[in-house]
Amino acid sequence: MKSIITVLVLAVLFSACQNSAKKKTANEKVSLTAAGATFPLPYYNLVFKNYTESKGTLVTYGGIGSGGGIRSLTDKVVDFGATDAFLDDKQLAEMPAPVVHIPTCLGAVVIAYNLPGVDELKLSNELLEKIFLGEITKWNDAQIAANNAGVTLPAKDILFVHRSDGSGTTHIFSDYMTKISTKWAEKVGTGKSLNWPVGMGAKGNPGVVGTISQTEGAIGYVGSEFAFSQKIQMAKVQNSKGEYVLPTIASVSAAAKGNIPDDTRIMLTNSNDPDSYPISGFTWIILYKEQSYNGRSLAQAEETVKLLDWLVSAEAQTEAANVNYAPLTEDAAAKAKAILRSITYDGKAILN
Amino acid sequence: MNSDKITKIVLFSVSFIILIIAGGMVFSLVGGAIPSFKTFGLGFITSSQWDPTEGKENYGALPFIAGTLITSFAALIISFPLSFATSLFLGEYFRNTRVAKVLGTMVDLLAGIPSIVYGLWGFYVLRPFLIDIGFENQGFGVFTSSLVLAIMIIPYATSLSNEIISMVPNDLKEAAYSLGSTRYEVIRHVTIPAARSGIFAGYILAFGRALGETMAVTMLIGNANRIPDSLFSTGNTMASVIANQFGEADGLKLSALISIGLLLFLITGIVNGIGKLIIKKMS
To answer: Which CATH architecture has domain A108-251?
Structure first.
């Protein structure tokens, strides 16, 4: 009996060894690891899968949040990180080596509401400020009615639903509110989680949408990547040119028209373009400018940069709209490509 | 070495591991809580500010302590008539009958339902119902959470009380019957006094469970960081603020959340301590 078991164990061990040996020869190609923001996760999952299928390089992306993405890059445990908020000058200085930002697509924050029968709701900056600071508490308030002629608004209480967890969505939303309202800037400010003056919190985009669609009279902000896939009412928001714009792939993309700095580190909220939806923003991939660190091979560095170069190319960008993200403008994509060409391995440019 | 000695050593080392784990938890909680207590002092417990905005970070735990205690007490009060009646039914009136067995199994089943399922039920069934009957305006808040919590803690209170009530010696009860007592009188003057400490222990256990409940509450309480001013206002609890904000927290905020965890640990400890003291006095 004992000898049979020994033979079996040996056989299993032997075949396991052979398996792994085979795998190694077949898998000479490098595999890339990345982690960061959850906002672009569905987009990255889709395009990275396509990339693996067509080019054979395995790309693994972990959606662990922007903060986690920055930490992972700092600790040098990933090939690149991803974040919804660019690193400010102070954060950049704290990184162990120079870091570059590559914008990959645009997303937006939509204002969702639940008012049966109200198909169009126009919200001016002033109304946004007053509703979200709790100064207007009823839907049939004269100030909302004045802005929405011809719409019958019910005498319901306004219930503001915000995120209860920390989130890049909250960051973009509050960044916009801070830009359009000095009162908001003073009382609340910008951040991933805030000291909310009114309303109730729900966890994640699905939590917020769930609560809004379950509660008549609710209003809240939701990431476009999730909101666009849901049947939910969305308000038109007034942009800096005074136009009321509905969030769509095109109006979100339009936010990136105009002056993008060469390092692409810019919050696009309250964009100057007349067609733009004002609560829009880039999401970035971050990586080290000098790719030779921690004993990384040249092949590893080359694959990293090639992948990103493909990610901002037209081929990958057309996929973005399929999963409810807005593609980069030509200008932004060109700037991203220029940045990628500045990335070096041992001081020599990787792409040319 | 004889088997007796081996058993002794194994038992001793295993219980020692538990001691180390519990000690390690306290140690890391205290370690993580130090920065926030250094910054805010004891004011951390009494302040109702919760401002995570960069540059003006200011944290206080009072809204969450209040939310936790209020929801848990309310749940205890709501569940008391239900669970007490059930345990009398199971342990005294219909002891060892088929009805009691079915009902007992159902009550135990309640304890086995994951708390997220309670949360979903509260969110999609109970909350719209409360709005429909005009009881609540938007259905989120202390009352709805307490109601769901009350149902969740019923099995904890019931099982133990039921067990203790059915353990009251028959001799005692028969003596009372022989003196001409009615069934109500026997329960009132014999069963309950004899089982008092056990019943109380059941409610302490249930209360402890309510204090730490997270998922169901976070789905229903509204997660608004303020002290609830009425039963129907929104609020937040200690467990639910930790669950919600832990993901993106770092630095001082992380320390503040760990401090809340430490406080929750202390409150649960104090509740259990008081419970044990009272049980000792009763028996």
So the answer is: 3-Layer(aba) Sandwich (3.40)
- The pTM (predicted TM-score) of the whole model is 0.82
Any domain includes B134 = yes
A203 with B139: Cβ contact below 8 A = no
Distance CA A112, CA A159 (A): 12
Superfamily of chain region A31-107+281-349: Periplasmic binding protein-like II (3.40.190.10)
Is A195 within 8 Å of B247 when comparing Cβ atoms?
A: no
> With a cut of 70, which residues of chain A have pLDDT below it?
1-28
Name A60's bridge partners: A33
User: In angstroms, how far is the first alpha carbon of chain A from the final one?
Assistant: 66
Please give the backbone phi and psi of residue B173, each rounded to the nearest 5 degrees, phi first. -65, -45
- Chain A residue numbers with beta carbons less than 8 Å from the beta carbon of B236 are 201
> Which residue among B52, B218, B225 sits closest to A191, beta carbon to beta carbon?
B52
How confident is the model at residue A22, as a pLDDT? Answer: 40
Low-confidence stretches of chain B (pLDDT < 50) are none
Q: Structural domain boundaries of chain A?
A: 31-107+281-349, 108-251
ipTM score above 0.95: no
User: For chains A and B, what is the number of CB pairs under 8 angstroms?
Assistant: 76
CA–CA dist A217, A200 (Å, integer): 13
**Which chain A residues have a beta carbon less than 8 Å from that of B247?**
65, 165-166
